[in-house]
Amino acid sequence: MRKIKVTRRAPVWLDAQAPLGEWYASGLGQSILDEIESALGKRLGDVFGYQGLQIGNPAPDRSLLRAAGLQRLLTLGAPGPARAGADIATDVTALPIASDSVKAVLFFHTLDFCAHPHHALREADRVLTDDGHLLIVGFNPLSAFGLRHLATGWRGREPWNAQFWSRRRVADWLSVLDYRVLGSDPLFVRPPIDSERVLRRLQRVERWSPLVGALGGLYVIQARKQSVPMSLLRRPWLRAPTGPRARAVTGGFANVGAAGRRAAGVVKLESVRECDRE
Fold it and tell me: Model-level pTM?
């Protein structure tokens, strides 16, 4: 019997890193990076801790987390040519990092190219500390970038073949995971034209950003992890049960403890999936 060799395709995020880096090396990409750095600089000024993680490395010469007060900055890229300047090379859905050890995680177009964005979000949630910050850079579908995505995305060229998630959809995912969105900044109102001369002439368009900023081609979302322990409130006017009733109640709590925690995790996962289907 002849054996059939099956070639397993790598995740989309891994495939996109090298061409995405080439796109960001263009004049258009460099102009966008300047605005992203400025927006992140304003967001990261109050973030302090031991280490931060940038996921996605399309611009090896720029550290997008340097404005934060972090002692150690790590960058994750894809294996191969896209690894240049990255400290770690692996898939975003399996981070080789200890849980609760990172103060800030930056998703640089991670959700746009990830085949399973929910898995990526759960990995970020795992490695973040209880009060950690998650920053997300993504493409805005309600913009000139979104129109070009609809018109040319079928060609399969980065970045137009990405999945453009709206800020509202991403905010819904974060709320289900118990994150509080601290703010979001739309960026780059100018059209996606790869001409430095034209982009310089259209620089004045950015002055209208306060009015038409929602139509910016990209956005930066900052969210903070909320880990609030749940405690029972004792009401003084209620008497605690005694006798056989007390043993039944406390025994019920003891038996449901581990199963209840597992059920809570299942409900949380199903809520994320339900949010995605809406």
Answer: 0.77
Q: Token pair for residue 252?
A: 């019920």
User: DSSP label at 79?
Assistant: S
Query: How far, in Å, CA of 167 to CA of 176, rounded?
Result: 14
Per the DSSP assignment, residues forming a β-bridge with 132 are none
* pLDDT, tens digit, 9 for 90 and up, residues 138-190: 999 999 999 999 988 877 788 999 999 999 999 999 999 999 999 998 999 88
Domain 12-225: CATH superfamily, name plus number:
Vaccinia Virus protein VP39 (3.40.50.150)
Q: How confident is the model at residue 85 (pLDDT cuts 50, 70, 90)?
A: confident
CB 183 within 8 A of CB 43: yes
Sign of the Cα pseudo-torsion (259, 224, 117, 60, in order): negative
Rounded distance between C-alpha atoms, residue 25 and residue 19, angstroms: 10
